Amino acid sequence: MDQLLDQFLHYLVVEKGLSQNTIEAYSHGLVRFVDHLKRKKIQDIRDVGKFDVQGFLLSLRKKNLNTKSVVRDLSAIRSFFRFLIQEGILETNPVEDLESPKVAKTLPEILSLKEIEQILEQPNLQTPLGMRDRAMLEMLYATGMRVSELTHLPTHQVNLEGGYVLLYGKGSKERIVPLGSEAMKWVALYLKGARGALAKGKESAFLFINRSGKEMSRQRFWKNL
User: Fold this and answer.
1) Do 122 and 210 belong to one domain?
2) Helix axes 128-143, 181-189, angle to 10 degrees
3) Can you give the pTM of this predicted structure?
């Protein structure tokens, strides 16, 4: 992989004529990526899949790299794979449908910390519905996802062990969003007991369900606040 990386960087200089700063930024990002693959025992670039790239991006977020740096590294990886396809080394691009990470949104700035805490502490934690609402609020606050994404979120897209949630944007492009420790804690507590109490034996693909065990609506979420 190191030889392919050298070929790509040479291509950027000779064929693309990119600035030295851009080439250095791409080089640093790709070296990080290749080192990550080696730690995962991946020696052949043809064995790299989409989830390997997602794992790399998540590792950057866990190291507290800012979003701009993460997006720049992903841009370098995209260009690298396009080069490999152009050279006939790869047939498909594993990051073709991977959406760039987005900065997690926060609650509106007009809310004070005390007001945010009051909202988070509003649900009655003695009831399954209250446990569900607390988990939903914590996840919404931690990820900045839209309410419609939250109420339609399939359970399998939440990875508590990995500490992230997969969300799909336009064109079915994926983005990986880290979960905070509080959100992970409350979702785990909800799954441990409250969700089963609401489901009453019914099957549902969605993480958050109503008292009938069915998918929640966006309108119902807002009414609960």
Assistant:
1) yes
2) 160
3) 0.51
